[in-house]
Design a protein that fits this description.
The structure holds two protein chains of two kinds. Chain A is an alpha/beta fold. Chain A is built from 19 helices and 22 strands. In chain A, strand 12 and strand 13 form a beta hairpin. In chain B, helix 2 packs across helix 10. In chain B, 28% of the residues lie in helices and 25% in strands. Chain B is globular, with a radius of gyration of 21 Å. Chain B folds into two domains: 176 residues, FAD/NAD(P)-binding domain (3-Layer(bba) Sandwich); 155 residues, D-Amino Acid Oxidase, subunit A, domain 2 (D-Amino Acid Oxidase, Chain A, domain 2), CATH 3.30.9. By secondary structure, chain B is of the alpha/beta class. The chains are: A alpha/beta, B alpha/beta. Strand 22 of chain A pairs antiparallel with strand 16 of chain B, so a sheet runs across the interface. Bound molecules: flavin-adenine dinucleotide. The site of flavin-adenine dinucleotide (FAD) has 40 residues of chain B, from helix 2, strand 12 and strand 16.
Chain lengths: 465, 417
């Protein structure tokens, strides 16, 4: 088995920054990522993107280039195309590259597997032609493909960014449908001082909104009861806004209700999580160095709580420093000296979050979908069925598996997990923490039997029980 | 209790299945019961059901630390068979098989018992000789089991590769046709529903923390997360946790708890008509009604209470499956899980009275107690009600580990099932 000083899962800003910082202190680092190139979601393919596309994607995208180029350090082994499917508390990861499985172990482990877009279960969301806005952005970054005649709907700052990128690319969305309300904005006002401290992010957001306005993209705010209509594929988005039901004909519906930490890996490790009411998601517990209650295992970036690219980068650097000190390559005093400015910038960058979280909460349909809406796509379980499980005595998601198979398909609840927890919590009058989350089992991504078989040492084991 | 019938199904289908009532009420513990059963797995719930239905004892509580059926009952690979070697075991497991036959009707709840046949592969002359011995001994005990040639085995299970070039060639197989599978959750639910309808309290999410004994040594009740519950009779049916629970009553049990793992593939169309086990290469496989291949692995080599288990075992099992069924190589594994199984030195269960007045145990089913669920429940209920064992479970005492009258099923139970 391979062994390195710091093993990192996820080559986004957090993972890349941690790798650079640790390698700078002399650590041998391995960086695993499912994608062929470093960058993560935000800086996806940043080292290979043609200049015209980079211009569309804007300066906040191009800012990732130096980070990705930093991986050239000979002490960093970047293992691209690697799907991690089993992660153990002894800091071993089983992963596959091109259908070949292997094991690698780190003396320290960083889980920097980022965020997932929060799934948006509205009626019709399983129709062809409906995807998340982030998926559309991936198509743009990686392949230069743009959706035509698309409506973009949901809430959150990223919605504006993606819409602005579509405008720059010459295919503006037909409409921008926002689920947040004026009430949400009012609720966010007490957090305004923080927003002012984080004025840089705020200015960026306002710039995107202005871009959309200049391009004449119609905006519908406070939208309710979203539904995708269509026979066999998406043909229109229906919504209620300003007291009026309307239907916007389109070919593509791009949904986005913010991002949430991808907790498959940290749940698989059995780490404790807590419900973050402001962000309406589970977050793994960790200290200020990203260290979790499992010794030597860290989290950083959006996977540790949504903070955005800059926060991810800073938190990754802190893990790099902490790992170097823990392994005796960096004097603790020096660690703290280098960390001090990082903590300061981190506090500034995080200051804007409470405002954004309050101003852009996920729409009510995301965590409490209507009875008829499919929540678990793999097993086709509706919200109504999950409420029926609760009436029959089902208290939590793991019991719901036995009742109706929610979360038992190939995605293991990546799509439905938060909604199932929220629906059961609401139906049983319990908190999400009491309700809990799916127990995540290996493999977190399906692997073929042949790949696993190839790992076995030859010869049968005769003395089994 | 709602009666399930063509009529009630149709009626509820017309109202969109929205009006089914809860199948068992959520109970809070009373201060005292005639009998407390620790562990709401299939075995514990079955015992409660038979206490109520056959012995008229209904002031009973079944207490579980989690939800009912959430232990090994909900984690196992559901293989049901009775072709064990020794007379005592053959009687024990065949008694259960007889009860399986009629269980759905008895409980008015479809437990999906499917007699699809369990085929055990022989890969060597040694295997063949040992299987033939099993077959003869089974037949003498009236248990069905027959020998198949490789071609017959292939006809019974077409995905099987019987070509001689394999590292583990198939030289034949032992087939028990009455054997098969059932839906594990439904067994727990069916018993829970039947027991609750007869007045049994099922208390979930309530760990039993200790068993209390009076000055005379007899059992007085159990300490739980919801307070002390008085009972003169306590039956422990807690699978992997049995030794921990009984320790509080001052008993040391000859049990070792191991993680046992299983896995499923992505679902595919029906392609696998039976259950196949291979002791030599250590794997067993069947196809669920959903279409997933259900693959069972072995116990870890070391004892532990962690419900996970090591990857090398899975590697080994999957390698064996790919060897015997090459057509499954490209299927993908969706997830694996584990349960804690309680294993005795002779691989046979302990079912009977304990040397403490009012204390009974049903444990040690190890890797293969699902198949015994109705039988174990029935015999435990009998033993508790009459304060003496039924003739079928009389040999399965705790004392056999001091007298030496072991029932050594290590060969029949060599593979986890
Ligand atoms: C992966 C796997 C595959 C298997 N495959 C097969 C198979 O193919 N065929 C077969 O026949 N058998 C199989 N088995 C074995 C079978 O599952 C068990 O023997 C059987 O289910 C035991 O039933 P039970 O009711 O005794 O145990 P369980 O269902 O485990 O019930 C015990 C209950 O006790 C509760 N409990 C424990 N401690 C406490 C406490 N302190 N307070 C309150 N409650 C407590 C637990 O929560 C649990 O619900 C398999 C087991 C595993 C793990």
């Amino acid at each position: 088995m391979d062994e390195v000083d710091l093993l990192i899962l996820g080559a986004g800003p957090a993972g890349m920054a941690a790798a650079a910082e640790a390698a700078g202190a002399g650590l041998v680092v391995a960086l695993l990522d499912e994608q062929a190139r470093p960058g993560g979601q935000i800086y996806r393919d940043v080292t290979a993107v043609p200049p015209a596309r980079a211009a569309i994607l804007g300066p906040e995208y191009r800012a990732g280039r130096p980070l990705a180029e930093g991986l050239a350090d000979p002490r960093i082994r970047h293992i691209p195309g690697a799907t991690a499917w089993k992660i153990d508390p002894d800091r071993t990861i089983a992963y596959s590259v091109d259908g070949k499985a292997a094991l690698i172990r780190g003396r320290r482990l960083l889980i920097a597997s980022g965020a997932l877009e929060r799934p948006v279960p509205i009626p019709g969301w399983t129709l062809p032609g409906v995807m998340t806005a982030g998926a559309a952005q991936i198509l743009l970054k990686q392949s230069g493909i743009l959706p035509r005649r698309a409506v973009i709907a949901g809430s959150g700052p990223l919605l504006y960014l993606i819409a602005a990128q579509m405008v720059r690319a010459g295919t503006p969305p037909l409409a921008l449908v926002e689920t947040q309300t004026r009430g949400d904005l009012l609720a966010a006002l007490p957090h305004l001082p923080g927003a002012i401290r984080g004025w840089r992010s705020m200015a960026k957001g306002l710039g995107w909104i202005a871009e959309l306005k200049r391009a004449g993209v119609p905006r519908h705010r406070g939208a309710r009861d979203l539904a995708v209509d269509g026979a066999g594929r998406a043909e229109a988005l229906a919504l209620t806004a300003g007291g009026r039901r309307r239907t916007i004909p389109c070919e593509t519906v791009l949904l986005h209700e913010g991002v949430v930490p991808n907790i498959q890996a940290t749940r698989l490790l059995g780490l404790p999580h807590r419900w973050d009411q402001a962000q309406r998601c589970f977050v793994p517990r960790h200290d200020r160095w990203g260290e979790t209650p499992l010794p030597g295992i860290h989290v950083a970036g959006d996977g540790a709580g949504i903070g955005g690219a800059l926060v991810a980068e800073l938190s990754g650097r802190l893990v790099g420093l902490c790992a170097a000190a823990a392994l005796g390559r960096l004097d603790p005093v020096e660690r703290d000296r280098r960390a001090a400015p990082l903590f300061r910038t981190l506090a500034r960058e995080r200051a804007v979050r409470p405002f954004l979280d309050a101003a852009y909460p996920p729409g009510p349909q995301t965590l409490s979908p209507a009875d008829g809406t499919i929540v678990c796509r793999c097993e086709e379980v509706t919200a109504g069925e999950i409420r029926r499980h609760a009436r029959l005595g089902c208290k939590g998601p793991n019991q719901a598996k036995a009742f109706g198979r929610a979360g038992m398909g190939p995605c293991q609840g990546r799509f439905c997990g938060l909604a199932v927890t929220a629906i059961l919590a609401e139906a049983n009058g319990q908190s999400p923490d009491e309700t809990g989350y799916f127990r995540i089992r290996p493999p977190i991504k399906p692997v073929t039997l042949a790949e696993i078989a190839a790992m076995a040492p030859t010869g049968p084991d005769k003395d089994s029980a | 209790m709602t009666h399930f019938s063509a009529r009630s199904l149709l009626k509820n289908a017309l109202s969109g299945h929205k009006d089914w009532p809860a199948q068992w009420p959520e109970s809070q513990p009373k201060a005292e019961y005639d009998v407390v059963i620790v562990g709401a797995g299939g075995h514990g719930l079955g015992a409660a059901y038979y206490l109520a239905s056959q012995h008229g004892i209904t002031n009973v509580a079944v207490i579980d630390k989690g939800w009912l059926g959430g232990g090994n009952t909900g984690r196992n690979t559901t293989i049901i068979r009775s072709n064990y070697l020794y007379d005592e075991s053959a009687r024990l497991y065949d008694h259960a098989l007889d009860l399986w036959d009629n269980l759905s009707q008895e409980l008015n709840y479809n437990v999906m018992y499917s007699r699809r046949g369990v085929m055990m592969l022989a890969h060597s002359v040694h295997d063949e000789q040992s299987f033939q011995r099993h077959i003869h001994s089974n037949r003498l005990n009236g248990v069905d089991n027959c020998w198949l040639t490789p071609a017959e085995a292939k006809a019974f299970c077409p995905p099987l590769d019987i070509t001689a070039r394999r590292r583990f060639p198939v030289v034949g197989a032992a087939l028990q046709r009455r054997a098969g599978t059932a839906r594990h959750d439904a067994v727990a639910w069916g018993y829970a529903r039947g027991a609750a309808a007869r007045g049994v309290d099922i208390i979930q999410n309530c760990p039993v923390t200790a068993i209390r004994r009076g000055p005379d040594g007899a059992v007085t009740g159990v300490e739980t997360a919801k307070g002390f519950i008085r009972a003169k009779k306590v039956a422990v049916s807690a699978a992997g946790s049995t030794s921990v629970v009984l320790q509080s009553a001052g008993l040391r049990m000859p049990l070792e708890s191991y993680p046992l793992q299983a896995l499923v593939s992505e679902p595919v169309k029906p392609c696998f008509p039976c259950v196949v086990m291979s002791n030599t290469v250590h794997a067993y496989i069947s196809q669920s009604d959903k279409g997933e291949l259900v693959i069972g692995s072995g116990t870890d080599q070391y004892v532990s209470y962690s419900q996970r288990g090591g990857l090398p075992l899975i590697e080994h099992t999957v390698a064996a499956i790919c060897e015997v069924f090459p057509m499954f190589r490209r299927m993908r594994m969706l997830r694996k899980w584990g349960g804690i199984v309680d294993v005795t030195p002779d691989r046979s269960p302990i079912l009977g009275k304990l040397p403490v007045k009012g204390l009974y145990v049903n444990c040690g089913w190890g890797t293969g107690g699902f198949k015994a669920t109705p039988g174990a429940g029935h015999l435990l209920a009998w033993t508790v009600a009459k304060d003496e064992p039924h003739p079928i479970n009389a040999p399965f005492t705790l004392e056999r580990f001091t007298t030496g009258r072991l029932i050594d099923e290590a060969a029949a139970a060599a593979v986890a099932h």
